[in-house]
């Protein structure tokens, strides 16, 4: 597994989450009595963006990247591959969410209820994937 693949996927995800967060913020501001679910989704997207930003920062440092990826076999190699797959899956779901939000943002009669109903299943998947990526246990190897 190429360590730069995670760096690339993370950079892409940061861009998408920024777009989604901006669109959500606009929709919340334009929607009277925005549903708490919509505001919660905004917080979760921005929290996820923060996690991605920290990963991107850490992996941008060559020494940190070398230490994290010094072994790409066994449990540790599998862990980083799982992280990459989770980020790529999140990117797919976030792109779907971004498209939906942009369509909704162009609709002047949109209500908070319609917004939440429209992407609740997609957002649950994004949240689920990001939670799994953050909580994935790693086994330490002895040297």
Structure description:
Helix 1 runs parallel beside helix 4, helix 2 packs parallel to helix 5 (112-135) and helix 4 (74-105) packs antiparallel against helix 5 (112-135). With 143 residues, the chain is mainly alpha-helical. Helices cover 81% and strands 0% of the residues. The longest helix has 32 residues, at 74-105.
Brief characterization of the structure:
The protein is an all-alpha fold and 143 residues long. 81% of the residues lie in helices and 0% in strands.
- Main β-sheet description: none
Secondary-structure element pattern, one letter each: HHHHH
Q: How many helix segments? A: 5
- Our measurement of the CA-to-CA distance between the termini, rounded to an integer number of angstroms, reads 22 Å
Task: Give the strand content.
Answer: under 5%
In round numbers, the mean pLDDT is 75
Number of domains: 1
Task: Produce the secondary structure layout.
Layout (H helix, E strand, L loop, with lengths): L2 H28 L5 H25 L1 H7 L5 H32 L6 H24 L8
Helix pairs in contact: 1-2, 1-4, 2-5, 4-5
Which key features would you list for this structure?
single chain; 143 residues; mainly alpha; disordered C terminus
